[in-house]
Amino acid sequence: MIGRLRHLLIAVLLGAVTVAALASAHRQVGYARDEGIYFEASRRYAAWLVLLRDDSGKANKQKVRDRYLSVNHEHPALMKMLAGVSARTLAQPPATGTRTGKDDTGGTFPTMPEGAAMRLPAQLLAGLGVALLYMAGVAMGGSAWAGLLAAGWFILTPRVFFHAGLHAFDVPVAVAMLWVVLAYRRAQTSVWWGVALGPLLGIAIAVKHNALFVPILLAAHWVCTLAWARWRDRRPTTWRQLIPLPMVSMATLGPLTAFAVWPWLWSDPVDRLREYFDFHRQHNWYNMEFLGHNYNQPPMPMSYSAVLTWATVPTVLLLLATLGLVVMVVRDLRRPPPSATGPVPQNVEGSWSRPMAPGWARLDGLLLLMLGLFPLVLIALPTTPIFGGTKHWLTAYPFLALASAVAWGWMWKHSGVGRLRQRWLMPVTLALVLGPGALSTVRGHPYGLSQYAPLVGGPRGAARLGLGRGFWGHAVLGLMPSLAEHKRVSLHDLHTLAHKQYMREGTWPAQTEAAGVARSDAGLLFYEKHMATNEYELWERQRAASPEELVTLHDVPLTALY
Amino acid sequence: MTSGRLRWVLVAVIAVALVEWVAAARAYTNSVGADDWTAFGQRVDSLPPDEPVVFADDWLAPRARMASSPLARLEAAALPDLREPTRIHVLGWRGRAWSDALQADLEDRPAPHPESTLEFGDLTLTTYAWPDAAVPTASMVDDLMALSVESDGGRCRGKRTFKCAEGRVVPRVVEVDYRARRCLEIDVSDGATVRVLYRDMPLGTVLRGHVGWGDFNHRLRSDAPANIELSIDGHVHARWLASDTQGWRPLAVATTPGTANVEVAITPALQRTWSRDGYGARAPHPVCFELRALQDGARGEAQSP
């Protein structure tokens, strides 16, 4: 009990440190394209929540609700509502001349810029994810070091750290999928967790659509578990276990919860759901540079997600994850059937509400294998739209991190290294293993989206290989002093709404207007292969091919000011 | 697995981690200092203007152009190919001295011989030379004042930018296959023919040019080809059908040294692009071309004893 409490305290501490680090470090991270839209949506969603509090009758008229919630309705509302509430609580007032209405006066306790306040809910979820990974890592890897490895594997990967601090959904949904899977494991033997699983899934779906795949994977895993128990282990099974409480909860309470926290669906739910699914099924094709080629239409090379994972996650972490998955699957396969160890207990059955009987194989190896590989395989399928970068399979990383924790426990348990030696060798090894990722994150900050793993050679190696340098127009904060020297600047890939956010926070020079290239006296250029045209337009405009200033990461240009 | 073998697994994990530490130490620092760029800039500033500096590592180009003003000239930043110089200087990072893109720019010209290498910190400037090279005698893109342009609707007005009844012809720097190219962009209505005439063009032994379509987004939304017809003194010497799948497509016609009226007639089949709103509603898909008269091997001959 004391050990568990100690681990809980460490988990809380790790979560708190993560949130503090993200909140402070991401003040230096410029606003990404998608964030601009989410900021705008969050302001409107929060305004609707205020109206709901003050005049629920009016707020619940479809016309009024739609007016507030239609912006960015292709993504669920939960994170944007949380961000809006956070801003209404903590945001400093907008800069002079940028107020959008009478009540646009900042939060109740104005302690931080609006963007930072809106990023806070996602950062809190990242902290929760780190804490959960620590606890689950301890449980699966058998020691605090294993827990630290799982937590560090995740948050010290530069792309994860970068995305974790943004007002976006990619790390939040990765954390949400983790809590659903952990709840599923508990739900196999607990009625309460069985009931809770549905709402937890609903919240995950309300974060981002990636979570829609989880119940399918968990159902497949459960069928495998049942089949394994019945045909391999000769355990008694019943029909009631086929669709047990956890599955029923996911199938009923899951959608209901998601629906409840997504007010946009409250009118015309069938049509709007269809629109939602169609949007993501027929997603716009993004441009991705991969090994020197610009890909805009499926199929991407099947190797894309695997190569990009290797190129952005330290190899030693991937090695441990692979080792852990192999160990777990082999362990499942080699687990002696009960008949080999004695008579099969016929009176120990699972039930509808506690579907897993004592002594059954959990097939955790299969579970982590499915959850850890599915997002990468999905992106690799030739028919999948080109969604974009590594953020689309970050949902795999918590499970790969847990697999690493298992590998860690297995290595030390069977390595024959004495306990005394382990005492100092374990922390040293942990530092060695987590170090490359941590260094990569720290040295890549605030441009973690452009950071690459050490064995690729970092940003320079990636540029030479022809891997993308970024895609969100965020690497611009360092150019603000120079922008102040110009009257009209073309924004290129800096989203208008991200620009608006800089204006609201007084970060953007007040005397500098946004303008088209033809009217501008300076222009931003975010380096992406398919946007080379935009650079040449700037060359023509200034009759020279030389930038005035560059934002670079380890010599590699990310953004130019012409 | 025995504990002895497992110990080796542990050692392997630690070894990979150590290798990554070393790699991280190399990868996550700035390797090119301001002094290196200054020294590089001084070297480039001292080079003859007809010896271009090109890049084996493209990502070095923006910073290099900041270091040396001759590199920032559009003519230097958007070369048509590597046919003309007798000597080129290739900037790479940590010893890289050539690239696939440079190889493509050679077209059918033989590979140059490496002559010397200079190091500026981690920057490597490799000089290559050819025994002979082509001397340009005229260029449609550079000699705009010598051009007259006509379309089906009659003579196009203007001296540097030509306005026609069906559109316009403009000198531009465009992106073709993700590379910068200087060319004459023809943006006219579907099926219209534009004729660009260079009277008394000083000819060498060959007319060389390229045709391509600018802007990745426009290429994505149309694949329409264009007919190109090259006449010398009123006689058609070559016809080509080109499309954007061919990238920066080379054109060549052998000529007799002297002067002649050279006309390029271009007929783009379709000039607009397709989008959700149908054909023509969005950006154009303008064809771009350049043509130079060259005296092949002239520099080599001039330098021969």
List keywords for this structure.
heterodimer, A: 562 residues, 23 helices, B: 305 residues, alpha+beta, Jelly Rolls, 2 domains, 7 helices, globular, disordered C terminus
Structure write-up:
The complex is a heterodimer of chains A (562) and B (305). Chain A has 23 helices and 7 strands. Chain A is mainly alpha-helical. A 5-stranded mixed beta sheet of chain A has the order 4-3-5-7-6. A two-stranded antiparallel sheet of chain A has the order 1-2. The longest helix of chain A is centred in the N-terminal third of the chain and has 28 residues, at 114-141. The mean pLDDT of chain A is 94. Chain B is an alpha+beta fold and 305 residues long. Chain B has 2 domains: 34-131, no CATH class; 136-299, Sandwich (Jelly Rolls), CATH 2.60.120.380. Chain B contains 7 helices and 19 strands. Chain B has helices at 3-27, 34-45, 61-67, 74-77, 100-106, 216-220, 298-303, and strands at residues 53-55, 87-93, 113-120, 123-129, 135-139, 147-151, 154-155, 162-164, 167-176, 179-188, 194-203, 206-213, 226-232, 235-242, 249-254, 258-268, 272-275, 278-284, 287-295. In chain B, the strands form 4 sheets. In chain B, strands 5, 8, 9, 10, 12, 15 and 19 form a 7-stranded antiparallel beta sheet that branches. The longest helix of chain B has 25 residues, at 3-27. The termini of chain B are far apart. Classes of the chains: A mainly alpha (562), B alpha+beta (305).
Instruction: Give the biggest beta sheet of chain A.
Output: 5 strands, mixed
Low-confidence residue ranges of chain B: 300-305
What integer value in Å does the Rg of chain A equal? 25 Å
β-strand amount of chain A: under 5%
Q: Which shape of chain B, going by the Cα principal axes?
A: globular
Biggest interchain interface, per-side counts? A-B, 58 and 56 residues
- The fraction of residues assigned to DSSP E strands of chain B is 35-45%
Sequence of secondary-structure elements of chain A:
HHHHHHHHHHHHHEEHHHHHHHHEHEEHEE
Terminal-residue CA separation of chain A: 62 Å
How many distinct helices of chain A?
Answer: 23
Based on helices, strands and strand pairing, what is the structural class of chain A?
A: mainly alpha
Number of strands of chain B: 19
Query: What does the largest sheet of chain B look like?
Result: 7 strands, antiparallel
CATH-defined topology of the largest domain in chain B: Jelly Rolls
Order of helices and strands of chain B: HHEHHEHEEEEEEEEEEHEEEEEEEH
Number of strands of chain A: 7
Mean pLDDT level of chain A: 94
Q: How many domains would you count in the coordinates of chain B?
A: 2
First-to-last CA distance of chain B: 76 Å
